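Write out structure tokens for Fumarylacetoacetase.
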Amino acid sequence: MTDFTIDPPQTVGLPVVGTEAKFPVRRVYCIGRNYAAHAVEMGHDPDREPPFFFQKNPDNLDPSGEFPYPSETSDVHHEIEMAVALKSGGSNISVDEALDHVYGYAVSLDMTRRDLQGEQKKMGRPWEIGKAFERSAPIGPIHPVESVGHPSEGRVELKVNGELKQEGDLNQMIWKVPEMISYLSRYFELAPGDVILSGTPAGVGPVQKGDEMVAHVGGIGDLTVRVA
């Protein structure tokens, strides 16, 4: 017997360094334009305006190391990000207590159908069609806080076929990790299994089938993803 009319979907589980157990994903929050240089390249003022977030779906996170080039687009962009995985949550979390809720960190990518996102922006519509498509968030294994601490500085870079495309430093984030957690918790009740993608530095650009992307975040490691 089952309490559901159809079989429920499986919980998305991400690999964790040092254990065979998986990290279960509940929600995925993504902050937009969180590095000043990237805000400028996207045509926006880099001043510290209030943060904004959009969401991807849990099953958009993909640890396979392969990114299938998606349909209905001719302009897919890479965006390297540090992912923040939460072990606990709540509402109205203070900045001072925010890091107590972090389980670990990972290297990730926010792949974007830029042409479709641009069309939605012009019409004032949501971005999901450009952001929340299948396997749009390649991600590496999660490194628990016990092994990497809470990285607040460190080189962030992405190479495509060996050529450096994006570079920056975690200390260049406009809104730091504790501030992101605190701000989100004012509008959503955060919970164990939530993942936050923390923004990308300047240099976003297109990829093509056959490309190899190597993403690096200082203190966490590398993520290699092939565009299939």
